[in-house]
Amino acid sequence: MITKEYSFWDLITNYDIEIPAIQRDYAQGRKSESRIAKALISDLHDVLTSIETKKINLHFVYGKIDNDHLIPLDGQQRLTTLFLLHWFLSIGTLSESSKKTLSKFTYETRPSSEDFCLKLVKESLKYDSDKKVSEQIENAKWFFLSWKNDPTIAAMLNMLDIIQSKFVKPNENLFNQLIGDSSPIQFHFLPLERFKLDDKIYVKMNSRGKPLTEFENFKSNFSILFDDGNKSKLDNEWLDIFWKFEKEKAKININDVDKKYLNFIINATLNFCAETIDIDKKIKDNFNIFDEYQAVYQQNSESLKQMTIVLDALTAFSDKERIFEKFLEDDPDYWDRLRFYAIMQFFIKKGSINDSNTELYKRWIRVCFNLINNTLIQSPDTFYKAIRSIKKLSENIDNLYEYLATSENRIEGFLQKQGDEEKIKARLILDSKDWETEIFNIENHYYFAGQIGFILEFSKKNEIYDLALFKDYSSKLKTFFSSEYRENKDGLFQRALLTFGEYLVSINYCKTFCSFNSSLREKMDNWRKVFEDKDKKIFLKNLLDSISINNFENDLVNIIDNYSERDWKGLIIKNKGIIEYCDKYRIAQWGSKIALSRSPADNWRRHADLYSYALFLELKKDSKNVEYKDSSDDIPWIFINWKGKFYYIQEEDSKYSFGFCKGNNDQIGLEEMQQNVEKIILQKNLQKHN
Q1: Rounded to an integer, what distance in angstroms lies between the CA atom of residue 664 and that of residue 673?
Q2: Which of 187, 211, 235 is the last residue of a domain?
Q3: What domain range is 368 assigned to?
Q4: What is the pLDDT of residues 664-675, one digit of tens each?
Q5: Is residue 631 part of a domain?
């Protein structure tokens, strides 16, 4: 069998060379293959630069020719290396006609590889022999960060560095040798059609083909719906969005990037579905993108256009790390889905965020997030109703505050109270920029998170909202709900508040001084019950009215010191440490017994008794030789070392009992200790009275 010898330039002049998607990635340039690659480049360098006339034959390249397209079935690696060699030697001198020829080499293992080859040829590069050529390419404006994680592109960059290390700099003379009629680098080309062979031989000839991943399979089908420009973005600009989430990792796995990309498409598609379909749990849990995408994104459908707008906008979306990342998980919660749906709607209505619409975006996100973050959305029906509410609200995105301020319509799909609050705030903000500043300031607090209706209510004077009062109440509440006061400062805030009335809220069979945990469910079970109760919130307002922001700590202490009632509340108010003892600030009242939770209050395995624990705190002031033993039964213990000997104290049925422990039987010492303790009990009112 006689076959003709070809140079790379011979083939690419006559055919478009397309490396098919089923081929494996370019491997000859991998760092793990550097030894072999360096040997090959050294041989090619020797042939091109030798004084003597030398030639090298790179053996057979097998391929299929289809309408002037050459599809290599074996020889992909050598052809790619020759493409890179031609490009390197011609940097800065490649003519337009030669560019047109060299750009006929395309890579379809990934569209990003295809686009990289095209950019490499068509874009200019100001070559610097003192820098690695790979770094120069990566720093070029046209290079996408995500390309670093395309294994073919990574191998190409490494091969170019190897070529550079041998050839040092571009050389027009050597390039002209390569493309001339007597090119010293040749191979045999075997077109399979000539020998009546079909594609099945590929399986026998090249067992190294790679299976496509789930995402690549989906993307190959999904891309058919897009025009050529947007099809290219699927593996370039749009892929870059998701690569950025992995960029801080020491080693980036392209499969992790693809997974985020696929999750985004799945989650965005489910959002689109929820606009018109009453989704149920089955659809949510078994949503198959392969089954659903065609119905949602038919050619030129509105959803397809909207998806394109969203992806284009995300390429320049600076807030994505903060808001967007949870939407890329396998199963984000309903709140995360809705938060991103609100962002999607802004993009769909206004395009990308820019200088002209930044304030509009902030207003839109503020209102939507306030509605979302303060509504319990825990079922498919509450989710799709909220989706439709946001979509309807987005029709007024250009005049959102004006719409809220004047509309009599209820905002469906969200907590009605929150919707009504947004209307009040919209009217105030439209009335004064100062209101906007102060509202934003307190809304952004970690605990209030957009729900501040009770502060607005406190701020009314003669049925008119007073900005000065609002600022004062907001400043005080920000202090009490700050990290400094949340869990420490001796419970001054809670103890002072208790002097105005029993503000504790009920949870199951117990009561709580209110946890500061910030999950929506925790807030709704704790402080929001205070904010919403007509009596309890008056206690809070009265406390705030009784203190000055400039002297609040002393004011709290004075309020506590002036409390004179000798009741169970007084023990908690007067004794720092009792509230802090309680897990989740919970207590329970069983008959005459008031128990303090030490372990989660749902089981009460460990607990203390209010009166005996207050006695323990009092005894501890004068002696370190005292210990409190909370209990899983009904009677906690106080152990006390009195003059070197150990005794116990217990409180049961409104009576204290005293006794020996640890081998002690000193009756005189017991009586002396008992008399001393009983004086303290009487003085401090540490005994219940039936």
Answers
A1: 13
A2: 211
A3: 219-431
A4: 889 999 999 999
A5: yes
